[in-house]
Design brief:
single chain; 351 residues; alpha/beta; Purple Acid Phosphatase, chain A, domain 2; six-stranded mixed sheet; elongated; binds manganese (II) ion
Length: 351
């Protein structure tokens, strides 16, 4: 028996709205989903599990038709789908009246349901979201029914607003595999008993690292799994250390190099660390032009010789400003001191 476990596809999401690559990302999320289905067409599996948030929001009827068309194209595979918190079954949800292809089982209730597969010895358990949040611990105390074959649970869960879970307890409940969704980064338990497949394509800038799905198979009566990366791009963090010799041009060059080394198509968050001199004036737009830069976080500290400045500017606004912050100061005050000084010094120089 072979299966594929997907979750958090988030069809319809528009990542990084307002950036140059946003529209392309919206397409890529669909393309990767189509590619996974095409892969199943080439290499059929018995079961496909979709553990919630197939859609980023309420699906449109035409989107359901398109997904159903893809599902119909893999008739040798039985497909089990639950709705998550993003595509939850609200009263008017297009999910409610939709007629799926014969090989699709859609769980349409918040109560746990259990279905015996008609082709392989597997019983599938699952429930869908009918609300945006489920704070109740719906998975506490559940266990598989008596009976042969493999017992596989689909669940969209994992934080306090979305079915909090005691993993240890759930792992001991007797299921052969837990196909989990909601957490976008893949997480696979060593026991092989459970996994968050993660989103096949990263959806936002916090979804760093590799993304893909889980492939499972049985061997000697036990389920084995492996992670299969499939995302076309990755979110990554570039940390640039600044020192007193850093120039604006030098930093832009370093960022461009780093981007091409890690992959021009990837999307980056940039973190600036170290110490910078007041002379180094960075232009965020120039840095952002070095690649797909989603955001820049400046954690560098301005280097000032406070004592020297205090002496040099004694009796002026700048001197008073430094004196105001003397003694032990908080992190926020330190920021205020440095940014204030930078503003005062640049304007006083301009005069
Ligand atoms: Mn979710």
């Amino acid at each position: 028996m072979k299966f594929i476990h997907l979750a958090d596809v988030h069809l319809g999401a528009v990542p990084d709205r307002g950036t140059a690559w946003s529209g392309r990302r919206e397409e890529e999320i669909w393309e990767t989903f189509r590619r996974i289905i095409a892969g199943i067409r080439e290499n059929p599996v018995d079961l496909l599990f979709i553990a919630g948030d197939l859609f980023h929001r309420q699906p449109l009827l035409k989107e359901l038709k398109e997904v159903n068309r893809l599902f119909k194209s893999i008739p040798e595979t039985n497909i089990y789908v639950i709705a998550g918190n993003h595509d939850y079954l609200n009263r008017d949800s297009a999910y409610r009246k939709f007629r799926w292809a014969d090989n699709v089982v859609f769980f349409d209730s918040e109560d746990l349901q259990c279905i015996d597969d008609d082709r392989v010895p597997v019983t599938v358990y699952g429930f869908s979201y009918c609300h945006q949040e489920i704070r109740e611990r719906l998975l506490d105390g559940i266990c598989p029914e008596e009976g042969d074959g493999y017992h596989i649970l689909l669940a969209h869960c994992g934080d306090e607003k979305h079915v909090p879970v005691d993993y240890k307890q759930l792992m001991a409940a007797g299921f052969d595999y837990l196909a989990l969704g909601h957490i976008h980064k893949p997480r696979i338990w060593d026991s092989g008993l459970a996994a968050f497949s993660g989103a096949p394509e990263p959806i936002d800038r916090n979804d760093t690292g590799p993304h893909g799905y889980i492939e499972g198979w049985t061997e000697n009566g036990k389920i084995h799994t492996r992670f299969v990366p499939c995302a076309v791009r990755m979110y990554d963090v570039i940390t640039l250390e600044i020192d007193e010799d850093t120039t604006r041009e030098g930093l832009e060059e370093k960022l461009a190099e780093e981007v091409s080394e890690r992959g021009q198509d990837n999307i980056f968050r940039v973190v600036l660390t170290g110490v910078r001199t007041p002379e180094l004036l960075l232009i965020p737009e120039k840095l952002k032009a070095c690649g797909n830069i989603a955001d820049i976080r400046d954690e560098s500290q301005l280097a000032y010789d406070l004592e020297a400045l205090k002496r040099q500017y004694a009796g002026t606004l700048i001197g008073d400003y430094i004196r105001f912050f003397s003694g032990k100061i908080s992190e926020t005050e330190e920021k205020a001191l440095f940014y204030g000084l930078q503003a005062l010094l640049t304007t006083s120089r301009a005069r």
